[in-house]
Amino acid sequence: MISVLTLEGREKIAKTFGQSSISYDQNARLQRYSGNVLCQYLAQVGNRQSSQHNYMLDLGCGTGYFTQQLAKRALSGITALDLSPEMLSFAKQRNYATEPDWICGDAHALPLPGNSHDLIFSNLVLQWTKPLTLALKEAYRVLTPGGHMVFSTLIQGTLDELKQAWATVDNDRHVIDYLTAAQVDCAWLQAGFTQVFAHTESVEFPYTDVNHLARELKHLGASLVSDKSQKGLTGKDKWRRMVAAYPQPPACNAGTNTHNSQIHATYQLYTVCLNKPPGD
Ligand SMILES: C[S@@+](CC[C@H](N)C(=O)[O-])C[C@H]1O[C@@H](n2cnc3c(N)ncnc32)[C@H](O)[C@@H]1O
């Protein structure tokens, strides 16, 4: 059965990201990392000499950090679209080489004409769409024939330490269900794209403790599990047991005898570059 995000689920996502718009930039180390990787890939598509594009779409632009960089490469214009009005308000405060067309909209039903953009950039947004195929079909529709889409998303294995720690405590879902790379591939194939390249990377970040990880996810708006069964707030006892079960670093580094008290969280990053075949 295909799992579909409800209207209520989308509203919750928009609200949670909206509430995080002010704290987002200070906590977005993974998002900056993956967005910079995507920007490097831009040089490999479109006008290879200048890596410029005519009309670009930043799909799920968030606070506009990468919109700002894309705007320097947009020859004809750029659309910055996000589900969250608060994220857009925040993004509008930056200065842009080309002022974007701001659109509050949903990746599942883009309020944009077909064949209107020749490059779509989307950094760490599509893991929030369901079904992914619907969002990718929309992206395909909006792209001009021969146009490209570069996106990054998180796949299965992301936050596995947290997921496994919670699994020792209860059967609730505390981390969103990430797709596998094969499922993502299936979605872009169904949408009609051909692949230029794809790359998976395991990225680990250190945290002082599990509270630090939880705070960062909250400040990014990424702590929401939209269709989690609401059995009340997580109790202190459950939280304490989950923290105790979270994989701990070795007590001390062999040889140096120095203590390394930081925990780690793993993110499985999937970066994909797609092409809408010319003449389609
Ligand atoms: C992790 S942030 C990434 C923001 C930005 N791309 C960046 O690199 O910093 C995810 C963004 O996707 C937006 N988003 C989530 N679901 C969306 C949807 N269905 N349509 C459009 N935007 C969506 C959120 O509001 C949020 O701003």
Automatic annotation (TrEMBL):
A Pfam family recorded for this sequence: Methyltransf_11
Residue ranges of domain Methyltransferase type in the record: 57-151
Pathway assignment: Cofactor biosynthesis; biotin biosynthesis
Documented EC number(s): 2.1.1.197
Gene3D superfamilies: Vaccinia Virus protein VP39 (3.40.50.150)
Reaction(s) this enzyme catalyzes, per UniProt: malonyl-[ACP] + S-adenosyl-L-methionine = malonyl-[ACP] methyl ester + S-adenosyl-L-homocysteine
InterPro entries documented for this protein: BioC (IPR011814), Methyltransf_11 (IPR013216), SAM-dependent_MTases_sf (IPR029063)
Function: Converts the free carboxyl group of a malonyl-thioester to its methyl ester by transfer of a methyl group from S-adenosyl-L-methionine (SAM). It allows to synthesize pimeloyl-ACP via the fatty acid synthetic pathway.
Family: Belongs to the methyltransferase superfamily.
Name this protein carries in UniProt: Malonyl-[acyl-carrier protein] O-methyltransferase
Gene behind the chain: bioC
